[in-house]
Amino acid sequence: MKKLMGKIKQDKMKKKITNKVVANKIRTSEGTVTNYLKGSYKVPFHKFKEIIKMIYEDDYKYINSLIEEYLNKIDKSEYIKEAIEWFFSTGQNKKAEVLIKNNIRRSQEDPTFEIYEMLCNRSMGIIKKEEFYKKINNIKLFNLDDDSLALLKVADMISHFDFKAYQMLSFLADEGIEHLKKIKNEYFSKAFELRMFEIKAGANLLNINLSETKEICLSMIEKYSELDFPIPISSFYYILAQVYLFDDYEKSIEYNNKAFEIISQTQGECEFRLKGLKESHDLISIHHNKFDNLFLGGQSEKAHMYARKGDVKKAITILNELEKAQGHLTAYQTYYKGLALMNEEILKKSRDMFISTGNLFWAQLADIKLKK
Length: 372
What we know:
By secondary structure, this protein is mainly alpha-helical. The protein folds into 4 domains: 1-74, 434 Repressor (Amino-terminal Domain) (Orthogonal Bundle), CATH 1.10.260; 75-206, Serine Threonine Protein Phosphatase 5, Tetratricopeptide repeat; 208-290; 300-371. 74% of the residues lie in helices and 0% in strands. The chain is built from 21 helices and no strands. The protein has helices at 2-14, 19-26, 30-38, 45-56, 60-73, 77-89, 93-102, 112-123, 129-137, 146-162, 166-179, 186-206, 210-223, 230-243, 249-264, 271-287, 299-309, 312-326, 331-341, 344-356, 360-371. Helix 4 (45-56) runs antiparallel to helix 5, helix 12 runs antiparallel to helix 13 (210-223) and helix 19 (331-341) packs parallel to helix 21.
């Protein structure tokens, strides 16, 4: 580690960056910075990445190589967990998964690694929501420190979201956020707060608690930087895009575009998120009869466009093909069919499909047409 920090110290000096400037940036003393660069103190991961970002700026390839070298040398579990959380918050899920796998042996002493492994397995579809719920509820609470308990609370919120228990999530989020006061690690406190509020905002949106949803999103965007936490901040912009979907096209598309811009600039594997934002862009635009500059990456979006334009034949042809291929139509696709045919029964069916999954917000698509 001394060799690594010595190299960084030399590059810092070449750029004439003083220890005082570094200390102000990473919110510590000049003496601590001196000891970090001498290799006398172990550098927490979140401080290390801030230091190298200041020195090497946009040289991401070299920054990534330094992070890899750091992780090969560091052995403190707390700093490894910081790196895992940072990889997730920047969309670098594969790197997070590798780091978890390489350190899963630590779960015997630190259950946080076991919780991270479960979260990874859930996101990759290795375990279903039922098994995920059982696993997180089988973790022995007396083994957990405050950091591990906070992550477990995040996992519990995710599990409730999976089961569409949206009414419970505000309570669980408030309980979790209160627990964050006990966490001493500033990076974990920030990252877990963002995770909890992201889930809470999503649940509030689906329950049509729009004023609270907007308040959460705007406060998190103001409080945290998209450069430090691009994935959660982009999610808050995406949720805001939905908040304004029905009432304000300009705001809705602006927020969606901002989320797209943030994700496009990350180093992570974000194809799935980009795909979702393209679909969201098209849904917002088509709903407001804006047909220019659409992505139309899927057949569903094309069916929606044709339904809105009044081209019934093309819309129904696509939807029939989708139903044959899938075995059924989704709630959205059922809405597109009702929209194309202007059929009240089909629109009611789509509304009921949304409501049956606890999705009151999107049920408004059908309600708007039924009220006309």
